[in-house]
Amino acid sequence: MIVRPATAADAEALAVVQVRTWQDAYRGQVPQEHLDQLDPSRRHEPWRRWVEEARPPAATLVAEDEARGVVGFVSVSPSRDADTDPEHVGEVQAIYLLPEHQGRGVGRLLMDAGLSRLAQGGYREVVLWVLETNASARRFYEAGGWRADGASKRNDTRGAPLEEVRYRYRSRSGR
């Protein structure tokens, strides 16, 4: 398994990983009708644009299996939250891994690569948002040293109003 920067040629694979992972991870948390209508072909072009237009420290890094191709990704950037300073706080915007590759250390490999990318940009703090009901993801983050910081928000983009909580990670290096 290697982790490398995504290229525009990875856009289709990124869309497939995102949709398949959403359909698996959010089952029972997001309306099934929303999950059923997700189509990777509608996400291909946005992924191509994101990868082509991302400027450091923003990046998408992919986990690539020699036999299976792209099996996961992490996207990082300066924080988009109004109550954080994007000069000092980074963000993990997304981390997704195909279900059949979960529990094998690939997610940790991706997270470490994303945090390393942000640390290289000088970020000492990083935030991410997770569905309040996503116990599996929350356990993964907490095992990696992330802690809920008390912030929450309502997200209406997944077919119903859903509560998200913010997690924060403080590294020993950075600005």
UniProtKB/TrEMBL annotation:
Q: Which SUPFAM superfamilies match?
A: Acyl-CoA N-acyltransferases (Nat)
Q: Report the domain of life of the source organism.
A: Bacteria
Which Gene3D superfamilies does UniProt cross-reference here?
Answer: 3.40.630.30
- Keyword Nuclease among UniProt keywords: no
The keyword Transferase appears for this protein: yes
CDD domains named in the record = NAT_SF
Keywords assigned: Acyltransferase, Transferase
Listed InterPro entries: Acyl_CoA_acyltransferase, Bact_Acetyltransf, GNAT_dom
Q: What is this protein called?
A: GNAT family N-acetyltransferase
Q: What taxonomic lineage is listed for the species of origin? A: Bacteria, Bacillati, Actinomycetota, Actinomycetes, Cryptosporangiales
